Amino acid sequence: MMKLAARIRRNRKMRVALVLCAGAVCLIGAVYLYFHNPYSYPLPCIFYSITGFYCPGCGAGRACYSILHLRFADAFCYNPLMTILLPLIGIYIAARAIDWMITGGNHIDGKISVKLLVWILIVIFIYGILRNIPVFPFNLLAPGGLAQVL
């Protein structure tokens, strides 16, 4: 296994092929989600099923569905934090994949502040708590809650 990983790190064509395969898998997933109706058949959240509380990602499937259909206001209603963070996550994944594909190394993670990452995790944790408070205005953070206002 270690020999294979070392060989992939040295071979740029293999890295390009792996990144293209990962991109193809993501594209297939996006096409599936585009035609999958999460309103009729929602993607289940294990955390919500077990605890009855919304996790920070609850509503993300419907939000991604809405984004794929260019309904950004609907996406924001289902999961505002994910809708804001999704472009940043996409930029990070694309930059990391391009860096690895070209150099075979990781030059991106060292340029990201650890303090920034800690703050993002704190915001996600607080968001997960606030969206479960059943009192106005916190109930607006529940999936679909902002649709009541907009």
UniProtKB/TrEMBL annotation:
<keyword id="KW-0472">Membrane</keyword>
<keyword id="KW-1133">Transmembrane helix</keyword>
<keyword id="KW-0812">Transmembrane</keyword>
<protein>
    <submittedName>
        <fullName>DUF2752 domain-containing protein</fullName>
    </submittedName>
</protein>
<dbReference type="Pfam" id="PF10825">
    <property type="entry name" value="DUF2752"/>
</dbReference>
<feature type="transmembrane region" description="Helical">
    <location>
        <begin position="110"/>
        <end position="130"/>
    </location>
</feature>
<dbReference type="InterPro" id="IPR021215">
    <property type="entry name" value="DUF2752"/>
</dbReference>
<feature type="transmembrane region" description="Helical">
    <location>
        <begin position="41"/>
        <end position="65"/>
    </location>
</feature>
<feature type="transmembrane region" description="Helical">
    <location>
        <begin position="77"/>
        <end position="98"/>
    </location>
</feature>
<feature type="transmembrane region" description="Helical">
    <location>
        <begin position="16"/>
        <end position="35"/>
    </location>
</feature>
